[in-house]
Every structure is written in C-alpha cells, then in structure tokens.
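Worked problem 6 (solution included).
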Amino acid sequence: MWNYAPQMRYEEAELLRRAQIAEEEAARAKAAAVAAAQALQEAQKARQQALDMAANMARYNSAMQQQQVQQQVQQQTQQQQVQQQQQQQQPQQAQQYHQLQQYQQQLQAHQQQQMQQQQQHDYHQQHQAQQLHQQHMQHQALHHHLQLIQHQQQQQQRSAMSPSEHLLQQQQPPRGPQPDRER
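Solution. The predicted structure is:
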C-alpha cells in the first residue's frame, strides 16, 4: 500500500495543477469576455457618435443649402425689385425729360414771342418817329410854302401900285392910338 502512495500524491498534484490552470484560463477568458464586452460597448458608442455626427453634418449641410437657397431667392427678389424700380424709373425719367423738353420749348416760344413783341414795339416806335419826322418836315415845307406865297402876294400888290401910291404907303405913319394933345 505504501508503494501506491507516491503515485497517488502525484496524480492528486497533477489534478490540482490542472484545476489551477483551468481556473486561470477561465479567469483569462472571463477577463477577455469583459474586455470584449467593453470593446463592443465602446464600438457601439463610437458608432452612435459617428451616426450623430453624420446626422449633424447632414442637418448642417441642409441648413446651409437652405440658407444659400434663401439667399439666392432674396438676391433674385432684390434683383427683380431693382429691375422693377429701374423699369418704373425709366418711364418717370422719360416723362420728366419730356416735360423738361416741353418746358424748354414753351420757354423758347415765350422768348421768341417777347422778341417779336419787342421788335414790333421797336418798329412801331421807329414808324411813329418816321411819321413825326415826315409830319414835321411837311409842316416846315408847308410853312415855307405859305411864306413864299405871302411874299409873292406882297410883291404882286406892290407891283400893282402906281409909283405915287407906293411912295405914299411908305410915308404913311403907322396907325395906332394917338395921344390926345388937347388934354
């Protein structure tokens, strides 16, 4: 019986060693499982973060595109408003230019009318002056003609007198009021 004792102790020790190895392997497997679970959780977390980031980027891109579209719409609206204002201003400018041309034409016509009136007034004054001058000249000529006629009549009367009558006419004193010498 003593001969089997060392053999039994060896087998027992071997069993214990194997059990310890199995426990260690189980512990390592458990640790590996825990690490794998943690890695899985981290992977899931990273995946969720990536999904969230992608969603955020998509929302950002969508918002940027929408903002760009709004800016383009606003720019187009502003351009249309500017074009409408220009189209509205063009008739107004044309109307103002037309009114200005009409005013200039009226002013020119008024100035021409004033010039014509001034010319007519000057012509009328010149015509009146010429008429007055002609009347004055005619009056002087008529007066001179009357003087000539009177002079000719006097000469004819003198030539019709006899020499004695002519002498008496020269010797007669002028008739006028004579003072009364008796008083």
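Discussion: Helices lie at 5-160, 163-171.
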